[in-house]
Each structure stands twice: as structure tokens, then as C-alpha cells.
Amino acid sequence: MTKRVAIFISGGGSNMVRLLEDMVGDHPARAVLVLANDANAGGLKKAADLGIETAVVDHRPFNGDRAAFEAALQAKLDTVDPDILCLAGFMRVLTEGFVAPWEGRMLNIHPSLLPKYKGLHTHARALAAGDSEHGCTVHLVTPALDDGPILGQAKVAVQSDDTPETLAARVLTKEHLLYPAVLRRFAAGDPTPVML
């Protein structure tokens, strides 16, 4: 049975676009909604241009009331009844109250080789540590930040002249390969991690 997927974004949605472009033909999943927490997120138009329903739940009017914001997110999800939720550059930390009902069905992509460098500024942190390799991870979301079971990783070599920006660009290229591969395998029920 084809899995229904909702994708959360906050910005341009480049990973979202790659997921949508991959979900064609005999893919075991199809997108039913792209939801952003910012009406100006560039990814909304890209999703609409690809024929995907979009929605916005702006976090700002909730004035820090995370429970109310998350209830509004869930209300939007309830209208499309997804099986899987993919976070693709969604820049809001979700509470246990939202995550718990989705546990085992919510994926996130993070720009580091977890468990290294949870949180922000991962590329600068990898360079500061003198790492020889860096990369990205797709994992299941749990209430702990960037801490769920790993579904796939892709590595890049760190170059001697790398800046956080050049390293980020190379990692993003890998993200665009890794996330679609993981979603395809996950939606098909294959638990084998994807390693690129």
C-alpha cells in the first residue's frame, strides 16, 4: 500500500523538492501535503508548482505557546491523514507532545554525522574540531533533539581549505541523494540503513 507523506519546511525546500521529484512512478510513497511555518518560505511555491497541496501554520502568532502551535500543525495533518512525516529544513523544535504520536513515522535530515554535532552550526563545529570527514544523517525523530535511530548517512571528505559555506554546499549535495533513498526504503518497509 502506498504511504501518504507530509513534508514540513521553513525555507527554500531543496530537500523537499528532491523528495517530491523522487516520489513518482512505482515509488512506495506519495506526497499529500507540504506545510511551512512561514508564509514566505520559498518551498511553498515550488511544491505548488509540482502539484502538491500546501499549507502554512505561522508559529509567530502563537507567542511562544508551543502546544497551541503544534495543535494547529496536527489539525492541518488531520485533513490529509499522512502515514509518514518528513522534516526537511523545518526550523522549529517539536515537543514530546507532538512527537510521541508520530514516533517511528517521523523522519528528519540533519547536516552532521550523528551522534556528532546535534543542533546548529554543524559545519563550523566539524571544521573547528579538525574532522577529516563530515556529512549528513536521516534519522527517526524522538523527543530528544537529533537523537533518534539512524536510517542513513552520507559522508564527504573535509578539504584543507574548506569554510563552513563550502562544506555545507558539498553536504547539501549528499543530502539531496540520501533523503530520497532513505524515504523510498523506509516507505517500502525495509529497515536496512542507507550508507552513501
Automatic annotation (TrEMBL):
Enzymatic reactions: N(1)-(5-phospho-beta-D-ribosyl)glycinamide + (6R)-10-formyltetrahydrofolate = N(2)-formyl-N(1)-(5-phospho-beta-D-ribosyl)glycinamide + (6S)-5,6,7,8-tetrahydrofolate + H(+)
Annotated pathway: Purine metabolism; IMP biosynthesis via de novo pathway; N(2)-formyl-N(1)-(5-phospho-D-ribosyl)glycinamide from N(1)-(5-phospho-D-ribosyl)glycinamide (10-formyl THF route): step 1/1
Binding site for (6R)-10-formyltetrahydrofolate: 66, 108
Any single Gene Ontology cellular-component annotation: cytosol
Entry keyword annotation includes Calcium: no
Protein keywords: Purine biosynthesis, Transferase
Positions annotated as active site in the UniProt record: 110 (proton donor)
Residue ranges occupied by any Formyl transferase N-terminal domain in the UniProt entry: 3-183
Site (Raises pKa of active site His): 146
Family note: Belongs to the GART family.
Protein's name in the database: Phosphoribosylglycinamide formyltransferase
GN (gene name): purN
